[in-house]
Amino acid sequence: MIQLDKHYEPEEVEKRWGKFWQEKNYFHADETLDKPTFTIVIPPPNITGRLHIGHAFNNTLQDILTRWKRMQGFNALWQPGTDHAGIATQNVVERQLHAEGTDRQALGRDAFVERVWKWRDESGGTITEQLKKLGSSLDWQRDRFTMDEGLSRAVREVFVTLYEDGLIYKGDYIINWCPRCQTALSDLEVEYQDAQGHLYHLKYAFKDGDGFLVIATTRPETMLGDTAVAVNPKDERYMKFKGKTLILPIVNREIPLIEDGYVDTSFGTGALKVTPAHDPNDFELGRRHNLPSVNVMAPNGTMNAEAGQTYEGLDRFECRKKLVQDLKNAGVLLKIEDLNHSVGHCYRCKTVVEPYLSKQWFVKAKPLAEPAMEAVRNGSIKIVPKFWENTYFEWMENIRDWCISRQIWWGHQIPAWTCKACSEIQVVRETPEKCSACSSTDLEQETDVLDTWFSSALWPFSTLGWPEKTETLKKFYPTTVLCTGFDILFFWVARMIMMGIKFMDDVPFRHVYIHALIRDAEGQKMSKTKGNVIDPLEVMEQYGTDALRFTLAAFAAQGRDIKLDEDRIDGYRNFCNKLWNASRFVLMNLEGYEGTCQLDEQADRSIADQWILSRLNNTTREVNQALEDFKFNDAALTVYKFIWNEYCDWYIEFSKSRLAVEGPGKKAAQNVLLHVLEASLKLLHPFMPFITEEIWQKLPKNGDSIMISAFPEFRADRSDAKVEEAMGKVMEVITGVRNIRGEMNLNPGLKLNALIKTGHADLEATLKKHAGFIRELARVDQITIGPDIVKTEVSASSVLGGMDLIIPLEGMMDFAEEKNRIEKELKKIAKDLIFLDKKLSNPNFVKKAPAEVIEKDEKRKTTLSEKQAKLETHLQTIEQAIR
Q1: Range list of H helices, 712-796
Q2: What angle do CA 12, 18, 24 make, to 5 degrees?
Q3: Is the peptide bond before 467 cis (omega within 30 degrees of 0)?
Q4: pLDDT for 512-533, tens place per residue?
Q5: What is the CATH number of domain 31-157+455-515?
Q6: CA angle 384, 386, 390 (to 5 degrees)
């Protein structure tokens, strides 16, 4: 028989099997197969990316599903690919140019884009190689990129179709603008952070000299673009001023007092400055009241000529300082209040975002959102956990038009051409040769590119060959499930649903599994500034990839953030070692065995054999059901408990005496050991692909790889509740004896006598029939079982299910020495409990300490109290013996 090495070395094993799987083409799906399909598309990582713990988590879950379904016989496609990441990638290359003493303007657009492609070819594949190291069984032959030729064609087809359908338009609109990146940002690309600011109270005087109104603003520099002041028509404070005109301070522009129900009478003074070019709500107010829009800023965040000569050319924040001083000097500034408020920042460069009026391209979102909401309402798409549906509906019901244009060079250039002769705009699939209106050949393409999320929204069908009606598209669309984080539920998921229904007339996926966020061991969000980031590549190097994968799966409870501690990863590395050692034991005890892993139905099986086969069968059912329900943690922990607790700790121990004696019993034990080991490896394979392949290859099995073998299935005839109950009682007695031995500090090698009192005849018969297991595994000499057992004077006892276990102690220990040991331990525990009580009753500690620290101390107190109670009971037994 082939043997396993003494120690498991993950690095060499992972490289070997990763290469083997790819060379054998096992990850590849086949359109020609007549098998049920399972399709999942990867959320395409940015080409600028490096594998972080979030990537590792999400891709581990996707790989678990894919490997499981592949082993179940599905034609499984896990579609790979990367995203061109417009702003992020452009920033990377711009930094390179800056280091070289140049910039993109000096290069020109074509040369710059060529430079970005060069960077992508040289460095953009890093994350792909890291995903392979994770064991991701993606169909790498189908690797796609959001700017490859096929996807670019799909993007152009979608854009033109939406334009032709009246769902894309260009117009003046208030958008989020990043002065650093000098591009528009969608609402979802703005990150809000709490910041300390100020609220400035200003006097706006009436033109007729009849007093003034007080308005409050956090951005006084935008007042230079005010074109009205608004009040609520029902606000009695301002009814007498209806129709009046005010004078805008500093600028001295006349602006009207308007009335609008939008104004909140309870906020501030109830009088609102209206700046249509610099506030989204004011923009809507301006449209309703036909107000002019005065843009006082340049794209780079400096003030323009509309701001006046005094402020023109100043940075917006410099302007704020100067303007506040000027307002103060003019007697217009009444007061300044400190204000903690939420400020929008660019998600890429962290610059404060400016609401800004400009010409942009937009998608009309509401017509697309309606069918997308209905798809979730009617169950065509199921979101798991279900509570995320409420968030989805809330956002979709309040959806705004989607700003899809970006003022950068890297990305899909918008397929719109303007005729310089007559200003006609053509939006077409192929580059036009002349103007459709005047036949001029002097055409200029739109310089803006599309939002990165526009191409990503087409991912489930564009990667499968659309707009061509390919066999791949017919076979694998719609996809089965999407696995992603909640942070891109709207960025990506909702938009894929909208586009899928619009262009494929069907949903893009049947299920959306939303996984939780990974935090550090204390529950804090991971960040480089805090220094609490766990690097998956380092972890894989230290503990092995399987240990990391299993940890992530075991913690993946629905709707609950993960507190990731490296100690737990180390713990699951120990699980790898436990599995390895158990497999070594089995392989080392196959002398004379000529069979395979297939179960020998004619073998003379013991009750222990029947028990482990029944437990394997029920475990198989539980794992399959948990994975069907996306309960990855339940599936992982069910396999873990079966392998560690039942197979390794119990069944292997039960089998040892039979393996030592030649005959049918040995052959049966060898066969069951092998069969259950192979099935366990298969159950574990989606979670731990590398170690399971390595061990499986050493077994006397059929097939070329565990990853293409059949996943275990539940069989009703293999479960036996009576056998499980009987063995459960036997194991309960063995555990009871072991606990008493440990609690009473009895020598592990000491043979004990056991008395078992029970009034249940069937239980008495079961225990007598299988007393040999108790003698062997609990190291018991004599066992007496019956209803009339009398407890000996000096003994330790335990109440078990339907029986009392009694272990006579006379002659088994030095009672005086044991009494001394227990008293010392009780003294230490009492001291520790006094310290914890004092700590937990201190209001200052409870108020300031993190919840995790308090919880840890409370758990320790409970554990110590329980131990104290047990030791006190044992002490009474010892004192009784001494008397």
Answers
A1: 721-743, 761-769, 771-778
A2: 130
A3: yes
A4: 999 988 888 777 887 776 788 8
A5: 3.40.50.620
A6: 125
